[in-house]
Each structure stands twice: as structure tokens, then as C-alpha cells.
Amino acid sequence: MPPAGWCWLGPVLAACGLLAVADGAAEAGGGAGAGAEAACPATLRSTGRCAAGGECAYEVRLPALTVQLPAQWGRLEEVFKEVQNLKETVNSLKKSCQDCKLQADDSRAPGRGGQLSPSPGAPGEAEDGRVRELESEVNKLSADLKDAKEEIDVLHGRLEELSLVNMNNIENYVDSKVANLTSVVNSLDGKCSSKCPSQEHTQSRPVQHLIYKDCSDYYTIGKRSSETYRVTPDPKNSSFEVFCDMETMGGGWTVLQARLDGSTNFTRTWQDYKVGFGNLRREFWLGNDKIHLLTKSKDMILRIDLEDFNGVKLYALYDQFYVANEFLKYRLHIGNYNGTAGDALHFSKHYNHDLKFFTTPDRDNDRYPSGNCGLYYSSGWWFDACLSANLNGRYYHQKYRGVRNGIFWGTWPGISEAHPGGYKSSLKEAKMMIRPKHFKP
Ligand SMILES: [Ca+2]
Predict the structure, then answer these.
(1) Is the Cβ–Cβ distance between 333 and 175 less than 8 Å?
(2) Is residue 212 classed exposed, middle or buried when 0-12, 13-18 and 19+ CB atoms within 10 A define those classes?
(3) Are strands 253-259 and 240-245 parallel, antiparallel or unpaired?
(4) What is the rounded CA–CA span in Å between residue 312 and residue 260?
(5) pLDDT digits over 92-140, tens only?
(6) CB proximity list for 439: less than 8 A, separation 6 or greater
């Protein structure tokens, strides 16, 4: 019977081709054992001592065992190393993650409504305090911002009110300044032409009158025929031709407008009314720029002569007449009526042409919100909403029907009365002319 230890050696020895040998044979075959060792490097040797229980100790010597593994197994070591590295990396990440979480918790804690009071001496105390400080600062800034916004809203409202008020005031202010300057310039002009001794010495009389501001200057030097003359109301601007009426009420009148036969169309653009149009010897509009220059250089009076188809002749005289520049939309300043035709330019509170802007069919500056009075009444005029006078209306040779767009003067006797068949009457002739207020013919 082989010993118990033999049983587990069996497969190895068998694999080596060893035969089981008896105790004695193995001992006896010690000399021949060299050959057996070469054939199979595993040796089994008795220690020669047997325990009392019947078991004997054997010594088994096995050669170094080499197991051939597939090539891929050679990378196992690398894989193990990598796994080790990964494990270390994971551990370090895990740790830093925990640190992270701790920090986050620390930061968040006071943020939850600031209800967590820091325990004294805790490591996060300084940070907690700083966070609370920042938070209160943010709250304060937010409140300040809200206040500032409300203040801005209030200021914005005031600014809008002011700009509305200003727009109205600026025009009045500029107008009054222009009027003041005009009167100062006029008075200086008068002083210089009459009282400056140096000027009298250096300039001969004809040189003094080289500049004729309007028809009254031509009258002063003796011109008495109603004709076209060249005037220079403002030395800074170029001179231009005007028609002078040297007969009516003493003469010296510069004519601004004339209607007498319908030979000139008065349904015109802003540009046409600006520069003027028509024939100075027949029907024309002198031009708003020229009217502005003439009325700003001196205080002027306006005379309007009217005649109807029945041969009735009436007039209106205004002691104040000024037309602002294009920037101010040729605003009309008219006042102090006198005459026989009635004050149609200031008919009532609701029909008042004073202080109105000029409107043409292509430029709506009137006070009629739903449309353009110039377009409706085929004219350029200082429309209100819309009119009690319109001397630039269509020329009708007889009574007409439809829109009242003819030459119209609202205070003319019977002009607004209802006629049979809805016919309306128009005026046959109209003339507007100006003269310096202080001119003595
Ligand atoms: Ca309008």
C-alpha cells in the first residue's frame, strides 16, 4: 500500500513516467537513481523515521515548475499595474470629491436663509461671515438699484413734461428775441444813417442809399411810379425784385401777393411758396423766405385790399405783421386790425390765423388733426383748423359750388350766407402789401 502522501503525488509522478517504487527499492536503487532523476527530476525519499501512529515522513523534491501560459498572460502584469494605478487615482478622486462636498456643504449652509449659526471656532466661520456680509451687500445694492430706478422713472416723466413745455416756449422765445433784435438793429441803423459824422464825411449821400431795404426806401428817394424794384432787406442775403405800389394810401408799399384774373395757379408746393411764383406785374406770391426777410428787417404793417365781382372795394390794415423763418414754418404774427373788410384773420377763438404755421398741400402744419387744410382748400396759407380767410384759394370767375376753396375773406359782407343752389361767391381781386410801421409818406 502506498503511503497516504503518495496519493496526491501520483498524478505528477505518473506524468513524469515514474513508477511507484517500494520503500526498499527506492532506497536500494540509490545508485541507479541518477538515471531516474535525469528522466524525471522529481524525487521521493524517505526520511527513515516513521511515527508511532504508522505514518512515515517522506521528502518529496520537485524541480522548479514552469508553466507555459498563452502570450496574452504576459500583459497581466501591466494590467495589474494599470489596475493599481487606476485604483490609486480613484481613491485620490474619491478623497478630493469628499473634500469638495465638505466645502460645498460649508458654503451652502449659511445660504439656506442664513439660519445656520456657525458654531464658535468652526473652521468655516470666517467664510460664513464673509458670505453673509456679501449677501447683505447684495441686498443693499438691490434695494439701492430699485430706488434709483424709481427715481429715474420720476425724472423721465418730468423730462417729458419739460420737453413739451420747452418746445412751445422755445418758439415764443426765439420769436420775441428776433423781434427785439430787429428793433435794436433798426434803431441803430436809423442812428447811424443820420447821426454818424464820420459816415457823413466819408460817404456821399447816394452811397448811403445804395441799399434799398423795401419800396419805402425808393419812395424816400423820390420814386413815384408803381414798378418793379430791386430790394435788399438783409445785407447778409441776396437782393430780389419786388413790385412797389407807390399810389395806394401814400405809396411806399412792397407787394407780397396779388390776385386779379386767375392767370397764376396758387395750388402749389411748399418749395414754390418758399421761393415765390407767378408774375410780379400780374398775379404772384412773393415767396415766404423773402416775406420773412422783409418783415424781420423792420416793423411792418400789412394792408390787404379786396374787391368783389360787384365792384365793392374794402381793405384791412394790420399794425403788426411778421412772418418767421422756414425753421419756424413761416409762422404768422399779425395784430391790431383796422379797416373796412373786417378782421377775418382773427375771426373768433376757433378761427384765428394769428400764430399759425404755413401749410401747403404737401406740408401739413395746420391745426386740423384729420387732414391737410392746404390739400382740402387747394392753397398755401397760415391755416388754423381750417380757415376764416384764404386769399390763396382757387380763382373763380363766377359763383361756384362744392368745397369753399375760392378766394375767401370770412368777414366780407354776405360771403358766408347760403345762396340758392348751394352756390358760393368768391372775390375778384386781392392784394397784400407791407410798409415800415414808422414810414411817413
Ligand atoms: Ca392737419
Answers:
(1) yes
(2) buried
(3) antiparallel
(4) 14
(5) 888 877 776 666 665 554 433 333 333 444 455 676 777 788 888 888 8
(6) 216, 219, 252
Residues of the chain scoring pLDDT < 50:
1-37, 109-122, 195-207
What pLDDT was estimated at residue 102?
67
Asked if 390 contacts 379 with a C-beta cutoff of 8 angstroms, the reply is: yes
Residue appearing with cell numbers 411792418: 300
Cβ–Cβ contacts within 10 Å for residue 179, how many? 15
35 Cα to the center of ligand 1, angstroms: 135
Query: Distance from the CA of 373 to the center of ligand 1, in angstroms?
Result: 6
Which residues, in sequence order, are CB contacts of 34 under 8 Å at separation 6+? Answer: none
Ion ligand 1 — residues with CB < 5 Å: 364, 366, 368
- Angle of helix 125-195 relative to helix 76-111, nearest 10 degrees, comes to 60
Residue in the block written with cell 469628499? 98
- How far is ligand 1, taken at its centre, from the CA of residue 393, in Å? 17
Q: Could you tell me the three cell numbers for 132?
A: 453673509
Q: How far, in Å, from the CA of 294 to the mean position of ligand 1?
A: 28
Residue 21 carries which side chain, given as an amino acid letter? Answer: V
C-alpha cell of 243?
413790385
